[in-house]
Amino acid sequence: MAKERKKRRSQAWFGREDIYGFIYRSWMRNRGVPGDQFDGRPVIGICNTWSELTPCNSHFRVLAEHVKHGVLEAGGFPLEFPAMSLGETLMRPTAMLYRNLASMDVEESIRANPLDGVVLLMGCDKTTPSLIMGAASVGLPTIGVSGGPMLSGKYRGQDIGSGTNVWSMSEDLRAGKITLEEFHEAESCMHRSHGHCMTMGTASTMASMVEALGLGLPGNAAIPAVDARRNVLARQAGRRIVEMVQEDLVIGKILTRAAFENAIRVNAAIGGSTNAVIHLLAIAGRLGVKLDLDDFDALGKGVHTLVNLMPSGKYLMEDFFYAGGLPAVIRELGENGLLNRKALTANGSSIWQNSKRAPCWNRDVVTAFAKPFKQNTGIAVLRGNLAPNGAIIKPSAATPKLMKHKGRAVVFENIEDFHRRIDDPKLDIDAASVMVLKNCGPKGYPGMAEVGNMPLPPKLLKKGVTDMVRISDARMSGTAYGTVVLHASPEAAAGGPLALVENGDLIELDVAKRRLQLHVPEEVLAARRAKWKPPRPPMTRGYWKLYVDHVLGAERGADLDFLVGASGPLVPRDNH
Ligand code: FES
Questions:
Q1: Which residues of 406-423 are buried (b: 16+ CB within 10 A; e: fewer)?
Q2: What Rg value do the Cα atoms of the chain yield, rounded?
Q3: Cβ neighbourhood burial of 561 (10 Å; 0-12, 13-18, 19+)
Q4: For the segment 113-163, what is each residue's pLDDT rounded down to a tens digit?
Q5: Which of 23, 129, 145, 218 is least surrounded by Cβ atoms within 10 Å, i.e. has the fewest?
Q6: Per residue in 473-527, pLDDT tens?
């Protein structure tokens, strides 16, 4: 045992008999830590993204206490620490701008401190990828605990979902179908408990990815935040991370190519967020796992959407949990040859061992693979002269008849141009037009904001138009829907072809053929390219500058170029 303990990373701090051992231990004792906590037992960091500025994670202090109980019960020494918290609803210009910054905070906090294993507390959209990216670049045993979704929104006897019904009600308001009073009333009915968005938006998608990747315990995706079983899961994770340290089950043994393949298929089966594409690519990049945009298309082929949840369907995460949650979906994939069954998970069992007997209690919420909610709905990767490096569309949230469409471009040069003109009754646009939004990619916005699902012009909404083809280099909220082509790369601000589109150009979308084509002769495009000038960056110093100078394209996960890869857990020097 003593020999085993010597090997622990934390003993390079706490297991010393010199001046450094004094320094490393003595200050820790100031809050009453007994000496036996330094005896070589696993030291577990609990990385907490609690913040009052991140409402979705506001219950995380309680969650952290449950993790601590678990760590102590298993004989570990828990130490909670904060990480930059990214609240989707408040942060401007977009929380995504700070995902990579937060990942740096997490990576360096883990590496610099005497930790043997880490529990990641994650909820609101970007808190999940940023923590996993940071932890992946260090490589210690790591387990993920998601905060859980809110209870279903309830409005005048109806279920309403985060985001999804914000978009639909705001369109109804603009079309004059509901009053401002009704709109305001819905505001307090939608978010009525702790937790993150309860649609299958990006937060619930990423919580599902944590479970599908094997980084979280079974049940992680769907247990509501306020259900006592969420606290039990946190406590079990606290116990389990101690064992993971003892087993040397490091994050790289779980996040293998097989795990990512499972995650991609699960994302297709849950009708998950397009944001998962960017985040999974970025996480894989940290681990050196070969994954590219085309994998999402290839692996998603033949996968059906099984989960009838907003924004693709009608139910919410609470219903998903009562129906059996993600294990019920994973079982369907496993029974239909769409799962790498042997992929190892955090509890030490394979993903198949965890889910092969998972029950489903409501086939209206989680459909059987043989009778799916929607067919063949994996994320489609489009290519063509408008997006040589790729663009994506989420077929499950699109209008089938618009998936093959040719129309004249109505171009918005940037988000301000869009806001200025979209409500103008004189805007030259009809239902067959293709809306094009430029300069909203990683460098352009900056941070690749969720503005790709452009609201439709009121004059068309009033005529009953509910969807149009929209194309941009932006992202879209996981709670949004529509025939929306996203992540066009290279982005406009980097001189991609999107920058060259002009009003009236003919654009062709053909999802079945994976085609996105701008029908403008090459010589005309060359002339436009010669005149093109990059937009002025909105800020020329600090993190914004670092970000714009180093951010990679969407097809590479929009990580910073110098963050790709891992540095491992070693810190060669003492601090005094
Ligand atoms: Fe936090 Fe949706 S705003 S998860």
A1: ebebbbbbbbeebeebbe
A2: 24
A3: exposed
A4: 999 999 999 999 999 999 999 999 999 999 999 999 999 999 999 999 998
A5: 23
A6: 999 998 888 999 999 999 999 999 999 999 999 999 999 999 999 999 999 999 9
pTM assigned to the model:
0.97
Tokens for 361? 């209690």
The mean pLDDT value of the chain amounts to 96
**Does the C-beta of 372 come closer than 6 Å to ligand 1?**
no
pLDDT in tens, 551-571: 999 999 999 999 999 999 999
| Ligand 1 center–CA 508 separation, angstroms | 34
Nearest-CA residue for atom 1 of ligand 1: 124
Could you tell which of 49, 96, 160, 197 is best to mutate to test the pocket of ligand 1, judged by most ligand atoms within 8 Å of the CB? Answer: 197
Distance in angstroms (rounded) separating the CA atoms of residues 263 and 339:
9
- How many Cβ atoms sit within 10 Å of the Cβ of residue 492? 27
**pLDDT of residue 2 exceeding 50:** no
Cβ–ligand 1 distance for 161 under 6 Å, the answer: no
259 within 8 A of 350, measured Cβ to Cβ: no
Residue 518 parent element (H or E): strand 515-519
- Any atom of ligand 1 within 6 Å of the Cβ of 450: no
By C-alpha distance, which of 345, 136, 148, 354 is closest to 243? Answer: 345
> Which of 99, 124, 273, 310 has the most ligand 1 atoms within 8 A of CB, as the residue to mutate?
124
